[in-house]
Design brief:
8 helices; globular; 8-stranded antiparallel β-sheet; alpha+beta; 343 residues
């Protein structure tokens, strides 16, 4: 049976919207049922906020498939949404003049102070290139290692930096080490100090093997995916739906941490993924023509920020089966942006 934690209505918060907003939320509710079914009766959490106030909140346990309670305290592994947290971290360091988006990686990592064996020069790679997946980095011709390479000396640049988009875990490995070298701190500590603690995200953080798993949801029953040093710029972050929505709200007014001018750097087109036409900024997917910006993670985890209506729609799912052919992750992102435009 579906578990409803809260569905805030206009009767409770009359200042938050109109009858159109209420109808949009009803349609969103139906849409969440449909997509959950398409993803194998997927457990999910959904939070919608407008003007900083929650107007809709729902949790569904997928008929108890995870063998644990799914509620507002549950911490979900959000995979590549971690990248958008790291983009905020980078902008905070830029605001503090500790680095620049256009700093060469060679300023921080000695291995990038030589041309390298690839056709293009490692010295040309910048932090912006890493954030936009346009660094051209590869190992052994065109491979991304499963873990940190034994030495960054073996990294090759196979496309001219800034010219070709390739979603790159290797680039994230390099970015993690670059930020640690620039700051002199571990990425976990740095993210906590600069982003998580200032924003009051008390249930957000990395979870490592051997850590207590209380309130951490398994991807499937008894299956957990933990954080690993060297891969934390790309994945490994756990959070609640409420915390993630709060993080989305922050991007609407980020001045407590960095300027709106720096935010616009992140929300500006830097490259496109050819497989689905996805437009990419700096660790964000861009739906600027539809009025929204999206942070997303593997297996249908979406945090959509819609500045025009001051709305954030957070949907975290744990699919239990391969997506039905009717489901498209790219279209799912756009659909949530369009819902947000109607709030």
């Amino acid at each position: 049976m579906k578990q409803f934690i809260a569905l805030y209505s206009l009767m409770v918060f009359p200042a938050l919207g109109t009858a159109d907003t209420a109808e949009t939320l009803r349609e969103l509710d139906t849409y969440l049922d449909t997509t959950a079914s398409q993803l194998g009766d997927s457990p999910f959490a959904a939070v919608v906020s407008k003007n900083g106030e929650i107007i809709y909140e729902r949790y569904y346990d997928g008929q108890g498939v995870l063998d644990t309670v799914v509620n507002e305290h549950s911490r979900w592994q959000v995979f590549s949404i971690a990248k958008s947290f790291v983009s905020a971290l980078v902008l905070s360091l830029c605001e503090d003049d500790l680095l620049s988006l256009d700093d060469s990686v060679s300023k921080y990592l000695p291995a990038f102070r030589e041309h390298g064996d690839g056709p293009f020069d490692r010295r040309a790679v910048t932090i912006r290139h890493l954030l936009s997946h346009t660094s051209g980095t590869a190992v052994e011709g065109n491979k991304t290692p499963e873990s940190l390479p034994p030495s960054f000396d073996i990294i090759q640049i196979i496309t001219a930096p800034g010219t070709g988009f390739k979603y790159s875990s290797l680039g994230m490995l390099i970015l993690e080490r670059t930020l640690e070298a620039a700051s002199g701190k571990d990425l976990d500590t740095l993210l906590n100090e600069k982003i998580i603690e200032p924003l009051g995200l008390e249930s957000t953080g990395y979870v490592y093997p051997g850590s207590a798993t209380e309130q951490v949801l398994p991807l499937k029953k008894d299956l957990f995916h933990y954080s690993q040093s060297g891969r934390r710029a790309s994945a490994g972050l756990y959070t609640t739906a409420r915390d993630l929505n709060t993080f989305g709200q922050f991007w609407l007014n980020p001045e407590s941490v960095f300027s709106t001018e720096l935010r616009q750097e992140v929300w500006t087109y830097h490259g496109m993924r050819e497989s689905d036409g996805g437009r990419y900024g700096l660790m964000w997917w861009l739906f600027e023509n539809d009025g929204g910006y999206v942070m997303s993670g593997r297996e249908s985890k979406i945090n959509a920020v819609i500045p025009g209506t001051n709305t954030v729609i957070t949907v975290i799912r744990y699919p239990q089966a391969r997506a039905a052919k009717e489901y498209s992750f790219a279209e799912d992102k756009r659909a949530l942006v369009l819902f947000g435009n109607r709030m």
